[in-house]
Design goal:
Length: 219
Amino acid sequence: MLAVRGLAKRWPGGAVLFENLDLEVAPGELVAIVGESGSGKSTLLNALAGLDRADSGSIVIDGTSVGALDEDALARWRRAHVGFVFQQFHLLPYLSVAENVALPLLLNGVASAERARRAVALLERMGLSGQGDRKPGSLSGGEMQRVAIARAVAHRPRLVLADEPTGNLDEANAVQALALLREAVKSEGAAGLLVTHSDSAAAVADRVLRLAGRRLAPA
């Protein structure tokens, strides 16, 4: 699903952040990437999503070469094929929970009946059945992250990227959110990448890699 070859990224001044980086992720596989602050973990995620261009190397996701897309095509591809989970949730407070989940579907032109059906089904999978009419501000942190995970996979993306998704959660909610993230990646057959500082969070993944010394290696 995801194949990265010889990827390199340098700081504007020329210092190398990472280079000759190779990575493969199979459909339904969740891979955790750990490493020190400043090692380039989040930059790597941004490069995989096309939010930040790599200096060299290739990124191929489900047969699409990310580097070959111009900015307009890249934006359309990202909207259709990438799902994000962030530390800060980034739910829209003026939309209902169900509308937040269905937002990627709306942006991709999915009909309203199908948006509603998929939002209800995802909220049920996340243990939030019957909560679709609530506003995000009325939820707990753990509930908001579950909504964010549902939103990330609502449009059945080929790539799911999670950047420190448990940073604002207590241990019990973190464990639950990560289990749901892993289940969602597997059920959708997506390639999943989880960036985290937490060894316990990384343990939920199928594989753990460490970004250090400009390279990725098994942790």
